[in-house]
């Protein structure tokens, strides 16, 4: 009889625990669905409005298009392709230079011994505490003095240097977790630092490299302020600058947003493709680095 009561109480306790756990999971799923709705709803409206004619947008800005206006994408591509080329040149240059410099610098801080190593590393970390907006005026004066206004290098070089402290910190944290036995074995085989860097470190660091690549591409592709200050020539404008000015002009002339919204959709496709290809490495890099 006692065993029956004990089993009944145990089952009731488990049921209550399971019931409570179910309510917790339900609440978590509700919160996630709400957050996902507020995240995806603006993107959905962007795609829907990009397929509307100007008159359709004025009559029903939040409804579905009565007729699919694919000509918006044709017009948007004619306008945005030059801006995309400028953004590609700057984004690829910044990403490649940043990954290369951060990898070499983090390897030096991890595998080499030299005087004031920790002092230099802490000084580099201290730069992460300085808001980037504080350097805009002095940085612009330096770029102007070097005659880099309306020059891609005027955007590339400051963007790379401003991202080095965080990138080195991220890479050194990852490199410090790699077993030293691998490097000792490589040294026994006669490998130099260059061989250990590119044949041992880099293959193992693919997740953290993917993390840095995605974050750099997204940040540089959407950067607005610094390219706006440096690239004043119309033919050198990047996507954010060109689309903002075109959106205002287009709406003033037509009263709609169809073509500019189509340009936003087109300009976001490269980011979606890159993240889709590197999503697994990106998540692995975030958890490991």
Characteristic terms for this protein:
mainly alpha, 12 helices, 289 residues, globular, 80% helix
How do the helices and strands line up, and which of them pair or pack?
Blueprint: H1 2-50, H2 54-59, H3 71-111, H4 117-127, H5 136-145, H6 152-175, H7 180-188, H8 193-204, H9 206-221, H10 225-230, H11 239-254, H12 258-288
Helix pairs in contact: 1-12, 3-6, 3-9, 3-12, 6-9, 9-12, 11-12
Textual characterization of the structure:
The protein has 289 residues and is mainly α. 80% of the residues lie in helices and 0% in strands. The protein is built from twelve helices and no strands. The mean pLDDT is 84.
The mean pLDDT is 84
The H-and-E topology, N to C, reads as: HHHHHHHHHHHH
Strand content: under 5%
Q: Give me the Rg, rounded.
A: 26 Å
Number of contiguous helices: 12
Please tell me what the overall shape is.
globular
Structural class: mainly alpha
Quaternary structure state of the chains depicted: single chain
Count of distinct strands: 0
Question: How is the main sheet built?
Answer: none
């Amino acid at each position: 009889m006692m065993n029956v009561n004990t089993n009944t109480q145990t089952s009731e306790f488990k049921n209550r625990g399971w019931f409570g756990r179910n309510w917790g999971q339900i609440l978590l799923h509700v919160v996630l669905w709400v957050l996902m709705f507020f995240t995806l709803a603006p993107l959905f409206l962007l795609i829907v409005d990009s397929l509307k004619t100007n008159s359709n947008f004025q009559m029903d800005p939040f409804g579905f298009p009565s007729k699919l206006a694919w000509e918006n994408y044709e017009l948007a591509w004619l306008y945005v392709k030059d801006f995309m080329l400028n953004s590609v040149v700057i984004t690829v240059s910044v990403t490649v230079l940043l990954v290369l410099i951060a990898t070499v610098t983090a390897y030096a801080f991890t595998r080499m011994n030299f005087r004031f190593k920790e002092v230099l590393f802490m000084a580099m970390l201290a730069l992460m505490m300085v808001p980037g907006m504080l350097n805009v005026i002095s940085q612009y004066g330096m770029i102007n003095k070097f005659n880099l206004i309306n020059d891609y290098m005027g955007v590339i070089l400051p963007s790379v240097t401003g991202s080095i402290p965080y990138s080195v910190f991220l890479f050194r944290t990852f490199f410090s977790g790699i077993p030293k036995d691998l490097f000792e074995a490589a040294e026994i085989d006669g490998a130099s630092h260059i061989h250990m860097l590119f044949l041992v470190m880099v293959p193992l660091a693919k997740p953290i490299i993917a993390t840095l690549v995605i974050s750099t591409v997204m940040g540089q592709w959407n950067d607005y302020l610094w390219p706006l200050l440096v690239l004043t020539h119309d033919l050198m404008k990047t996507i954010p600058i060109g689309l903002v000015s075109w959106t205002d002009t287009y709406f003033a002339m037509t009263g709609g947003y169809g073509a500019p919204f189509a340009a936003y959709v087109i300009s976001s496709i490269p980011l979606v493709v890159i993240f889709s290809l590197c999503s697994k490495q990106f998540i692995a890099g975030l958890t490991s680095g």
